[in-house]
Write a structure and sequence with these properties.
By secondary structure, the protein is of the alpha+beta class. It has two domains: 4-103, Orthogonal Bundle (Helix Hairpins); 119-422, 2-Layer Sandwich (BirA Bifunctional Protein, domain 2), CATH 3.30.930.10. It has twelve helices and 17 strands. The protein has helices at 4-9, 11-20, 27-63, 67-103, 140-147, 152-159, 168-187, 202-207, 232-236, 294-311, 358-363, 388-398, and strands at 123-128, 150-151, 165-166, 192-193, 199-200, 226-227, 243-245, 251-260, 279-289, 316-320, 332-340, 345-354, 366-368, 376-377, 379-387, 406-407, 421-422. A hairpin with a 4-residue loop joins strand 11 (332-340) and strand 12. Helix 3 (27-63) packs antiparallel against helix 4, helix 5 (140-147) crosses helix 12 (388-398) and helix 7 crosses helix 12 (388-398). The N and C termini lie far apart (57 Å).
Length: 426
């Protein structure tokens, strides 16, 4: 949510930010709505003040024996009393109109975000590791099906397209990856592990920016709940409607959850394999930070996600997303892309975003400096630490052996009961 006062103070800067997002100017329309709301607020306040003043005068007039004026004042008080609900309703409608308008406008990009229309304008900032060029490298679904451990057909019978059944060692590898990531993030990087709800009400999903604009990307139940598209939503909402003490910041949370996405608009994209599914698992990272320190928290979070790939010895690159490729709530995003030999290219495995106070305003998440009476909105950050399915894909493709076996990276072997290799089928 945008700060209406900031738009009033500098409408040109607001429109300039929208232009970088590829959007038309909107400040004038918003300020027209705001001016009408403020007029209605003033009118309601004046009516209330007049009612209070007249109510006080009635007793004085009666005491002075001026019954005619007292009765006239009483009649006016009655008229005002009847008129005020309509005035207050008009004020609420005007406020709702502004909120509805602002709720559909994405966050403005940070000054150092590169401009561009799509992913071709993203800026690579570093690479780690050597991308292996394997002879006759197979994609993960070819490897998984040959092993007899990845069954898309069985999943399709039960659920349709974009689902998979993992079996045996591959199922255990997914579980191992989640435990490995959580152990590192909690014991080394200071994140608190959370087991959050997977079904959420409208207000929680609105708070992080998925509603109202992206309802079609979500799955919902028949009784008014939304399935989480990512644990970012419940983890960030842990700060909703709170006033935190400054010394408690940053709060750092992590969770391993399934995620559910309709993949609206993804027809024809990644139709084979596990890259883009309706249900997938992820270890999420969320930080609730002091605004003055959210930039360094963003760098730290990205480094935490990168650390997982380093320990698994997977080559990756990190890019800054351009203005046209960022998510709705982000003001700056780093994408981490892992090398997939089967596809012979880098693919996203984590997005780490600084949302500034955009989500905090929507969910009323604030903090108070020591000795201060006032409050400020926190900054919220989120990132994948990492996407489990895509990490499994990366291990399968990078650790594939000539005969079809999959070697297990050394850090994961203790989580796999000492298994060093998933042997070839047969």
């Amino acid at each position: 949510m945008h700060d209406i006062k900031a738009i009033r103070d500098n409408p040109e800067a607001f429109d300039a930010g929208l232009k970088r997002r590829g959007l038309p100017p909107m400040a004038a329309e918003i300020l027209t709505l705001d001016q009408e709301r403020r007029r209605l607020v003033q009118a309601a306040e004046e009516m209330q003040a007049l009612r209070n003043s007249l109510s006080r005068e009635i007793g004085k007039l009666k005491a002075a024996g001026d019954d005619i004026e007292a009765n006239a004042a009483a009649a006016e008080v009655s008229r005002l009393k009847e008129a005020m609900p309509a005035a207050e309703a008009a004020e609420r409608e005007a406020a709702a109109a502004i909120e509805a308008k602002l709720a559909g406008i994405p966050n403005l990009p940070a000054p150092d975000v590169p401009d561009g229309a799509d992913e071709t304008a993203n800026l690579e900032i570093r690479r780690q590791g050597t991308a292996p060029r394997l002879n006759s490298a197979k994609e993960h679904y070819e490897l998984g099906e040959a092993l007899g451990l990845m069954d898309f057909g069985a999943a399709a019978k039960m659920s349709g397209a974009r689902f998979v059944v993992l079996k045996g060692p591959l199922a255990r590898l997914e579980r191992a990856l989640a435990s490995f990531m959580l152990d590192i993030h909690t014991t080394e990087f200071g994140y608190t592990e959370i087991v959050p709800p997977h079904l959420l009400r409208d207000n929680a999903v609105y708070g992080t920016g998925q509603l109202p604009k992206f309802a079609e990307d979500l799955f919902s139940t028949t009784d008014g709940f939304w399935l989480i598209p990512t644990a970012e939503v419940p983890l960030t909402n842990l700060a909703a409607d709170l006033i935190l003490e400054a010394q408690a910041l940053p709060l750092r949370f992590t969770a391993y959850t399934p995620c559910y996405r309709s993949e609206a608009g993804a027809a024809g994209k990644d139709t084979r394999g596990m890259i883009r599914q309706h249900q997938f698992s992820k270890v999420e990272l969320v930080s609730i930070a002091d605004p003055d320190k959210s930039g360094e928290e963003h760098e730290r979070m990205t480094a935490c996600a990168e650390a997982i790939l380093k320990r698994l010895d997977l080559a990756y690159r990190t890019v800054t997303l351009c203005t046209g490729d960022m998510g709705f709530s982000a003001r700056k995003t780093y994408d981490i892309e892992v090398w997939l030999p089967g596809q012979n290219r880098y693919r996203e495995i984590s997005s780490c975003s600084n949302c500034g106070d955009f989500q905090a305003r929507r969910m009323k998440a604030r903090f108070r400096e020591a000795g201060s009476k006032g409050t400020r909105f926190v900054h919220t950050l989120n990132g994948s630490g990492l996407a489990i399915g895509r990490t499994l894909i990366a291990i399968m493709e990078n650790y594939q052996q000539p005969g079809g076996a999959i070697a297990i990276p050394a850090p994961l072997q203790p989580y796999m009961g000492g298994l060093k290799e998933i042997p070839a089928h047969g």
